[in-house]
Amino acid sequence: MSSSANSSKPVGPAVAPVDTVTFEVASAALQSAAEEMGSVLKRSSYSPIIRDMDDFSCALFTAEGDLVAQADYIPAQLGAMSLVVKSILHRWEGRISDGDAYICNHPYQGAMHLPDVNIVTPIFVAGELMAWAGTAAHHIDVGGVNPGSEGPELGELYGEGVVIPPIRLSVAGVENDDLVALLTENFRDPLSTLSDLRAQRASCHLGAERVHELAALYGTPQLIEVMRRMLSSVETTIGRLLEGMPDGSGEAEGALDDDGRGGDPTRIHAHIEKHGARLSIDLSGCDPQTAGAMNIPWASARAALVYAVRSVIAPGVSANDGLLRVLDITAPEGTVVNPLPPAAVSIRHNSCQRLADTLIRAMHRIWPDLAVASSQVSFFSFNIGSTHPRTGIPSVMADVVGGGTGATRDGDGLDGVDTYMANVGVMPTEVVETNYNVRIRRTEFRPGSQGRGKYNGGLGLVREYEILEHPQHATFYAEQTDSRFAPSGAAGGGDALPTTITVIGPDGEVIDRPRKTSRVLQPGTVVRVESGGGGGYGDPGERPEELREWDTREGRIH
Question: Which in 35, 124, 371, 540 has the greatest CB count within 10 A?
Fold first, then answer.
């Protein structure tokens, strides 16, 4: 049934009575539904990057597109997905039907970079639109110049893959065969990509079922009021927390190693002011958009703001769009944090990590008692066009290697994790070697990579990939390869080591140590990444003796 022109407005009375107990139970049920959507997607997906590495998010939205409940898988997608829903509403107003499923990966129409594909479905009750269910998942390939659809050297969006504005994957419950045929002919591994898109759609279907059940249990007007209160509750909570903190201002800056093409470092700058219950964030000091693919589309920059504010001020508060209501944001168009099309954005996550770190350090200038050491933001990524070792069918592999988090006043940082806005697991060796003509020679912690302090930062990782059988086209890159921009310590703690990438030829000789590159690798070639650790916190001379003994016993210090 098609919606009316006003179908995006909530159904029922403007305000429905909802008591406190009902609100708490129903809001928890909506959050649980988002998490259950995540379980469905993880268990029914085809690609290791979703199934094994958890690079996806699931959420529920109001009829107007405001995010009310999201499963915390990837913080990089917090605060971003609602822009896609609003883009769908803008494009399709008056033509949205029950059973439709929308697809979008357009970075300039609400999405992030092209591999992060959004599938969103409307939820109708009694013929009226009352909510949305949505998923965002990283797909191993969506076309473009390089396998994996990323390339630091790319200058325009068009080279990064197929650009999909908000269109219908399914129409009134029937899959759009023409669109599927088009996508099939443009993706290097269509079986994986299409299977994952259908898993996302199934996840949305589960979310819709749960919303229907809650509407039947509590009443549609009451459930809509619960959603409204979920947003206002977060807004109120954040506002009260801010009111209880000292007013002030702070600024910080960081730098990307280059512009994606080996050029000069790219400046990331944040100025933050806190007055009463509001936080003003000014990003106008950031450099202009880059020549390469380091640019951050607005959806991703907004997600970084949400992540940083939530991390510093209210880590225990639910993630929804209510947080955005207390922020005043300045981010001029044409800068690296809000580029103009058709600027390339495929490596935007490395820049997001630097932005998150810079925002957090700026807030620490206002509230130094909350300061922590910086985590590594190198985010080494390895994409390669390979083949299945048993069938020989072409396939694309995408892996990510984390590093150390910064130490805090309470203890050491974490070893070998995906930091800040990322939460992706390293691909298991068994998965790599049974699906791709790639051998993992070693995966281990990197002793001595951490910043020293009263509490030390977490350790980085070492991972080696060996190319097997035939030449393979790879793209791999990292940030913080420049020691000037290594993870910094806090309160007298030391900085961590930078990240290093080494390419070793089949003859065992070092070919080079690139920062970011796309190239064909010959069989026998080894790519080694040594990721940075986290910064240290406090005076190293004050490190407790039992921790010093542990460092020595476990071989953590060179």
Answer: 124
